[in-house]
Amino acid sequence: MKSILIKDTTREERIQIINQSLAVCGSSCDFCNGCDNLGGGRIEAIYQPYIDGEKEISEINAEYRANMVKG
Q: Is there a contact between 22 and 29 (Cβ–Cβ < 8 Å)?
């Protein structure tokens, strides 16, 4: 498996990684709460910092989990 770290991917590859990951259920993300994103906005927007090369997926996921526990 190829690395998904920012340093090892292009922006286009990161977009593809996010799109493939979110489509794992076989459905689009529009109007879906399947990822327990209740009120969290468009799920792919959560990963925009990864796409932009600002934060790794693991950082975003950790922050999201921490915020869900607080909420």
A: yes
Please report whether residue 1 resides in a domain.
Answer: no
Q: Using the CB atoms, write b or e for 28-46: b if 16+ within 10 Å.
A: ebeeeeeeebeeeeebeeb
| Total domains, the chain | 1
pLDDT tens digits along 6-25: 999 999 999 999 888 877 66
Residue 48 token pair: 């925009």
- Measured between alpha carbons, how far is 20 from 71 in angstroms, rounded to an integer? 28
Write the Ramachandran bin of 20: left for phi over 0, alpha for psi from -120 to 50, otherwise beta.
alpha
Measure the CA angle with vertex 4, ends 70 and 44; round to 5°: 50
Model pTM score: 0.75
